[in-house]
Write a structure and sequence with these properties.
The complex is a heterodimer of chains A (89) and B (193). Chain A has one domain. Chain A is globular, with a radius of gyration of 15 Å. Helix content of chain A is 81%, strand content 0%. By secondary structure, chain B is mainly alpha-helical. Helices cover 64% and strands 0% of the residues of chain B. The longest helix of chain B is centred in the first third of the chain and has 41 residues. Classes of the chains: A mainly alpha (89), B mainly alpha (193).
């Protein structure tokens, strides 16, 4: 929707409307985005839209961020993540 | 060994396999991309268009197939070029592995779930504790009603599964108990006072 996989909307929808736990919401949203992104990534790649010069640092940075983020999420309290999300809105 | 526990073991092994595939895919993809970046930095070339000395603009520009800056997008072509050691091809191979990893993960779990779902449809295990579909969260959510109504039952009764807060929570680990070490410290400090 915004080019970011609309995780913000998904998490709010799962958390507020479906009453799922917050950490489960964020990780489920991440997984959903991953699956849909992987489906389109193949098409972009075949069209030559993925420039290795840009994609390589982005991929490495995203992977590093994922590792750090996952560890942080396990330690953080749900309430703090909640507040972060409401800050965005 | 009962059929129940053997089913549970198979499901556990499937989940482990999926996790190993994911980890291996990400590590392999990262290693390939890193190797490509190192190779590009070392040789100062992309392997396709010798544009590195000419600056960033040419590298960032979209290169349509057939143009000077064009890099391959067909998997076979990429593989052949990567074996030769062209930096762009190595990076692209890593990106391909990264793209294929989640797709493979979904394919694996669909295959496993299909196996479980078939045995449910045959009535081998009904929805008892040994039902393979139950071993996966999605399957448990769909087919069972242990302590709560599964999605299917909720929908067929005409209600959205909105208020099932507790069962979802029980799937997560309980909050860790306060560590006994701190308690001991406090006790000691109180005792010393």
């Amino acid at each position: 929707m915004l080019g970011i996989g609309s995780g913000l909307f998904k998490v709010i929808a799962m958390d507020r409307l479906m009453r799922a736990p917050l950490k489960a919401s964020t990780t489920t949203s991440n997984f959903m985005i991953g699956v849909t992104a992987a489906a389109s990534a193949g098409t972009y790649f075949a069209r030559g839209d993925i420039n290795p010069f840009i994609a390589a640092p982005v991929a490495l940075g995203v992977l590093a961020g994922t590792v750090i983020g996952t560890r942080l999420l396990r330690r953080m309290r749900s309430r703090f993540i909640h507040r972060c999300f409401w800050l965005f809105w | 060994m009962t059929e129940d526990s053997s089913n549970r073991k198979t499901a556990r092994r499937m989940e482990l396999l999926v996790s190993y595939v994911l980890r291996a895919g990400v590590l392999l993809g990262t290693a390939l991309i890193m190797a490509g970046v190192v190779q590009m930095a070392r040789t100062g070339e992309t392997g396709y268009a010798s544009v590195l000395p000419h600056g960033l603009a040419a590298l960032l520009a979209f290169a349509p197939p057939g143009s000077a800056g064009h890099f391959p997008t067909a998997p076979g072509e990429i593989l052949r070029a990567a074996v030769v050691g062209k930096p762009y091809a190595i990076i692209e191979l890593g990106i391909l592995v990264l793209i294929a990893t989640p797709a493979l993960r979904v394919a694996l779990s669909v295959g496993f779930f299909h196996r479980g779902a078939r045995s449910v449809l045959r009535g081998d295990h009904a929805t008892g504790p040994g039902c393979p579909g139950r071993q996966f969260p999605a399957g448990r959510w769909l087919v069972t009603g242990h302590g709560h109504r599964g999605l299917w039952q909720s929908v067929s009764r005409g209600g959205m599964p909105v208020r099932h807060r507790k069962p979802v929570r029980t799937m997560l680990r309980p909050p860790p108990a306060e560590s006994p070490a701190t308690h001991n410290l406090e006790d000691r400090s109180i005792a010393s006072q």
